[in-house]
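Researcher: Structure prediction, please.
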Amino acid sequence: MADEVRFTVRFPRDLADGLERVCAERGLTPSIVLRGALTLYLTTIAGSTETERRRQFSSEYLFLGIDLLIQRQFPDAHSALMAEADRRVEALYAAS
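Model: Predicted structure follows.
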């Protein structure tokens, strides 16, 4: 197509492996996955208003504060909570 531009890029091995895995699992080409990822990234950056940055900062601050409190007040539960959070994230992304 005349409206397309070709780029040559290099990726770290772990990103390339992840790309290949997603392509194989979903039957997509690397170009389709990378175009989608770049579109999502650029849309996110474009929508990064001051209000959104504040919301992101507040969320991160809240998560860090809760993590610190749990580490200090419930150190025995911290590892279990982190493991469960990791398990849930893996399940969520495996399902999508």
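Model: The two ends are 31 Å apart (CA to CA).
Researcher: Thanks, that helps.
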